[in-house]
Amino acid sequence: MGTPLVIDYYSDVLCVWAWIAQRRLEELHQQWGDSVAVHHHYLNLFGDTSKRIGQQWADRGGFDGFGQHVREAAAPYENAPVSKTIWQQVRPQTSANAHLLLKATELAYSREISSQLATALRQAFFVSCSDIGQLPVLLTLAKNADLDPDQLQALIANGAAMSALMADYKAAQDLALQGSPTWIMNNGRQILYGNVGYRVLHANIEEILKRPEQEASWC
After folding, report:
1. Which of 162, 166, 160, 192 has its CA nearest to residue 179?
2. d(CA 15, CA 117)
3. CA 65 distance to own-chain centroid
4. Do residues 113 and 105 make contact, with C-beta atoms less than 8 angstroms apart?
5. Of 46, 132, 194, 199, which has the highest C-beta tally within 10 A?
6. Is the peptide bond before 181 cis (omega within 30 degrees of 0)?
């Protein structure tokens, strides 16, 4: 088996478009298997929800208006259910704690287990309205996923998880990424972001996997 195609996938756990894209990640795995490796990274969109939503959506209904926007965005996608009360009573203050826990999980376990936990965190928020901005809530969700909260907290306490997260945030900033989720392929030559359909992803992946290697050097 050859080296898999690496997709660097940047998202924010509180972004509804990344929740919608979850099914496309699953389809990629089902169709391409070990030929494709998705490396999850995180960017800072909802680091301060009071500013991003409370202030920027102030003239559009604030958190309630944003919640309606999220429900409408997800409505056409049956595989991305969203609670009717999203962003109403429960309003996480930040996505950074969730990202921090996910990087700790990646360090303690593996990329795959971290990505599985990311799915669980998104489901906890978008479906069950759990406040995944709070570290105690996050650690409980990790424990429910059979992960060791003490081991994860140790990596948070000693700064290792924060260092890994800052590397993600810095990379996203350096790449000037325009949204969540963003898919980066072919050593940065192909970048797709936002609500990208599966057919578009499939076409790009198929092209890269089937294209002669020397084409990458053509002018």
Report:
1. 192
2. 16
3. 23
4. yes
5. 132
6. yes
Cα three-residue angle 125-121-70, rounded to 5 degrees: 35
CATH 3.40.50.2300 fits 5-217, yes or no: no
The pLDDT tens digits of the residues spanning 130-186 come to 999 999 999 999 999 999 999 999 999 999 999 999 999 999 999 999 889 999 988
22 near 117, Cβ under 8 Å?
Answer: no
- CA 163/CA 183 separation, integer angstroms: 22
Overall average pLDDT of the 92-109 stretch: 98
Per-residue pLDDT band at 3 (split at 50, 70, 90): confident
CB neighbour burial string for 118-150, b if at least 16 within 10 angstroms, e if fewer: bebbbbbbbeebbebbbbebbbebbeeeebebe
Residue 176, CA distances (Å) to 77, 170, 191 in order: 28, 10, 11
3-class secondary-structure state, position 41: strand
> What is the per-residue pLDDT across 39-56, written as a single tens digit (0 to 9) for each?
999 999 999 999 999 999
Average pLDDT estimate for 107-126: 97
What average pLDDT does the structure give for the chain? Answer: 92
Query: What residue spans define the domains of the chain?
Result: 5-217
Region 97-108: what's the mean pLDDT? 98
How far is 121 from 135, CA to CA, in rounded Å? 12
Q: What angle do CA 126, 48, 107 make, to 5 degrees?
A: 70
The structure's pTM equals 0.91
- Cα within 13 Å of Cα(110), Cβ side: 5
